[in-house]
Protein 1
Amino acid sequence: MTISDEKNQDQKFIRATEILTGAKPGTKMPEELVGIIKIAVGDDNADFLEAFAEKTSFTMEELKESLKNKGIELTEDEILAKVDFLAKNGVMMDQPTAQGVTIYRTLGIARIFDYIFMRDIDVEDDEIKALAKLQHEWMERRRDRVQNKYDTYESTIDKVRPIDRTIISSYENQNTGEEIEIMVDKPIETPQEMILPSQTVQEIIEKYDDIAVGHCYCRNHAKVLGDPCHQTDIQESCFTFGKSARHTAKHGFSRLISKEEALDIFAKIRDDGLVHKVMHLRANPELREDAICNCCTDCCPQSRGFMLEPTANYTNYLAQINTDLCTGCGTCVEKCHQLIIELNDDDKAERDEESCIGCGVCAYFCPENAISMVKTPLKIVRIMPPHQK
């Protein structure tokens, strides 16, 4: 291959990256992202993505027409083969509507990494190792960008949109077996037109016939990089529901399971202190649940100790510590996902109210059952990563 050929190849993947990120042609693309796209899309499929340059979803007939307009003539079987390859690499989704019409659409670039690393991966696979390295470099670039302009990001944190919703891990204390006290400071008024989101794992599981579980992509990533999770050895902990469950199972990212198995896995997740993060369709808590991530403190980029960028999530709860019952054992300090609990001068636990995401992990593990959960209207909690001065 000549230098000119290599440049043409690179340009092809830069263009594919522009399309998948929605960037304008000519936008400078980070080389890490282009590298990820190069692996996920493959040499034979980059040009195919030109069909999605102006629109992200099509029926088969619309897709044929869009390809034709781009000067690409493919049979339906050839199109389906490309779609299947791209779907198995997290680039596309091919799902039928309620009317039975299959829609072919591209996914956000984050889904490439998420889906590929949801599999039971071979940590010695060269392609997987290359993807893991590129993803790590991309994450570090984002971390450095925030740290270098920390004041700017901090001043605009109110603009960060939530991508998930935290729900309580348990309503029963692990040590005492007693119920965790749920308090309501004042009546919560809910507009009649608002649909209240499900508040427990059990409620969500009961709603869906199709449930799938895959590996945690964050912990898989850490494992490939040679630094496996120190908090849990649970591998399968990433849940998808309904249409998303069918899609992830179809393309090998997950496996379909029963409600009973799902609840059994969640019991283990709870006992390892993982935080339940619910993903809703279009990040709208009034719409259906798509997935639940179960996040640890040392691999998840939304946990404060590992946080890359300012984050925001919805919650309906806030932890409240009864200092009369608190013995200062420090269990809650150790377990807190957001590192916002510390012992004061009196050896009593205190938490930063503004940054509490209401996960209830501290209340579940408190040996004195000294932590209650205060129910609040649905609210947004925004958190900055620690400033590494």
Protein 2
Amino acid sequence: RWIDVTLASRRNRNLAQGFQAVPEGSRLAPELDLRVPPAARSAPSRDDVEEPQEFERPKGKIYLYWGCGESVRPGQPRILDMASAAAADFGRFFVARRATGRGAHSAAGRPVWPNEQDARMVPEDASLVGSHAFRGEGVPGEFRFRIPPEQNLMPPVEIAQRRAGGATALEWKPIAQARAWFIAAMGAKSGGAGEEMVLWSSSEVPETGMGLIDYQTNPAVDRWLKEKVLLPPDRTRCEVPAGIFGEEGGAMLRMIAYGSELDLAHPPRPADPRKPWNPVWAVKLRVKSVASAMLGMDMGATSGERSRRPAANEAAAPEPAREAPAGGAIVPG
């Protein structure tokens, strides 16, 4: 489990340190110490800059499969021959579904946690449910909010694998907070001629999944559920078709359970969009749970990935009435 926090305030563009009061259940109480990271090293001199290499067209083929099932479906795979493909062919092949907004990140004036001064790990039994508050120079004194149980740290994805008629059957435990699921696998095709890469995803429509193993907005998740790009929250099984990775079937499998985004602000946004709204602070909380494993390798039904970005929460506090709120971010997972 990981939590990433960022805080910023337009009242203080040079904010160097902040604090977040956290509940006892976090096992990190009474507070987190947010610091601006050390300045990045200077840009390389002209002597250090490498000369651009002459472009060499890539070779090999990429095969794209999609959908759960023991057998490859009719009309699959899509094949991209990189040696002869035009730019438009690449665009059609790599369908890019992605709605990942920028979350917790470090920058000048944006203290973060964890950091060199406070690098504590998040205990396995930690809970973020309860009262939280930010403070710091230029941060509004009323910057207080509560995290509800449904936005708590998500449990790890627990997935088991077994052979099923040559296919690989994936089964996982449900997660109450999951809004949807997505699975993708990538590997070299064994026994193939030359350089051949295989992509597979659990989507019912062609989808490489290159941008989906990350936070996505609630509207995007709901839309992709309707389009059958994502698996519904009550789904607990999927099969990777037999033979798509060759006889040996070696591939890296990644799976994500999407949690919901939570947006908080003070005062709350008026129901009537015509009314003026000047929030003093705002928070965005994002949660997810991600797992990775080698395809076909039974991991004892547990494979929680120790990602640096399992969830995100953003907070903001504007000073003048018409100024957008300043930002702070918490990333739990």
Protein 3
Amino acid sequence: MTQPTIGFVGLGYMGAPMAANLLDAGWPVTAWNRSPAALEALAARGSRTAATVAELRDAGVIIFMLPDLGFIEDAAAPLLDAWRAVPPAPGTVVVVMSSVSPQGVRGFGDAVVRASGGNAAVVDAPVSGGTVGAQNGTLAIMAGGDQGDFDRIRPVLDAMGTTVRLLGGLGAGSLAKACNQLLVGTTTAALAEAAELAERSGMDVAALFEVLAGGLAGSQVLTLAGPRIIAKDYTPTGPAKFMHKDLGFVLESAAVAGSAVPMATAGHALYGTLKEQGLGDMDLTVVRETIARLGGH
């Protein structure tokens, strides 16, 4: 079977290496991005470039990797207009790989179905693993949508991740990502809090984290974020402000489900303070600086 062209929208910290892995796996990729530099870099690896998102109208799979659903809806508007004029081929799948609202992505899915005359559907498939996972093709991908649509795009997802699961209908992937961010955001904050407490008490933070890694406190978050927290290296691998957004999705989903989320509530407030301090464009581990300032330093 001929491989469908993959449309890829959004070549940021995560999107660029994800699209590159698709090319490396042999998928034909046509990309669109606001800034030309990322497009040129991907084109050097063999991709084609779309002048507008509407030019992706005939792609069998169209992936969106933009900061939030508002950006996706704006970028997709000319594509949906093109589909209203001439519907796409049946079985076309739009894949939302950004961290978005579970409720919001269902509304976007309805809009895609209407605009395409029922020929296209949305699968939400957000990712976890950071820029390292994106570069190495080892992302965890949590999907929501129709089983048949998921099965069609599974080989595409496998080129970008090593743990790929369908967790339910549309929106389930985004709910899973919200749960993921609840754990990542609060764990990173707890590590930062422990580091500040230890340092102000005269303890070597690196030695502390080495011991913690050997016990029940050991985690992927400690392994990846720990060195940055120790060094106070907040060079962005992804803006910290996105965690505030993601924990907002936890609160939104909890309100719908009637679930208490005290950790998410505290984390959302903390990362809100981080944004107010002007630190939102730095790495997530900059939450240590937020905690330091709260402590009077």
Protein 4
Amino acid sequence: MEVGYVGVEYGEVGHVAVRLYGDLADLAATGRPAPHHQVPVAAPRAVKDVIESLGVPHTEVDLVLVGGSSVAFAQRVIPGDRVSVYPQFADLDVATVSLVRPPPLPEPRFLLDVHLGALANRLRLLGLDAAYRNDAGDAELAATAAADERALLTRDRGLLMRANVVHGQLLRSHHPDSQALEVVRRFDLFDAMAPFSRCPRCGGSLAPVAKAAIVDRLQPGTAATYDTFTRCAGCQQVYWPGAHHDRLAAFVEAILAAGASARVADPLEGGQRGKRKSIAGVLSSGSRKDCTPGAGEALPTEKAAAV
């Protein structure tokens, strides 16, 4: 069979040939990683539907090419078309050509699925705006994320495939520490973090509070041992650097270290993010080699706990 643009085979009659790049191949609903697919198409069909029929939510896609041209998700494909689907790459900039990337969020704000309470705790520890309820249904989550301009975080592919979900992320890991690093990397939040500035319980802002103002709420041993306290402006929970603090600080340090390792030393700027290659340059070079995002560092295991 003839080989087409960027290594995608031309579609057979009645099929669209789809090539999933990078870690999108791991999401293919085939039981094993598979980059090449033939999707049956009996009539013109939106490319978004074709991609999601393979188990890949549109939120995970950063660039779609049909016949070598960048297209939007609404683009109709027909039998014989060839489709290349790219994820977000750390070292590949597609901003100038992508027609599927949504406008950026005004600020990094997240809404978490009902099974991600521990991740909500971690993101709040990092100082990020992470809304969470354990009783919301899929329709409510999707509508709230859209109305409040929040990125929806979940491990549920079907939830992210809803048409009204604009920003979102399909989390790969089951462990909340690693999930937190996934989110920070995906949305490039290393410079947006303000560790220990939010309440892990409700996400409200923390501010220093005088010991005298809250001493009646403390156990005698706590009052005798600690002098530094913060209080949540929302739920009024009081925090101090207790027994769990070192473990939580180790988690924060691991995230910050991951950010530092992503920087490239620069004698003039004192360090900057690695330069991202233009997708136009990569495609025009004729290279068919996959670009693969770096693997995530392991983070210390810990139980969810108050600061």
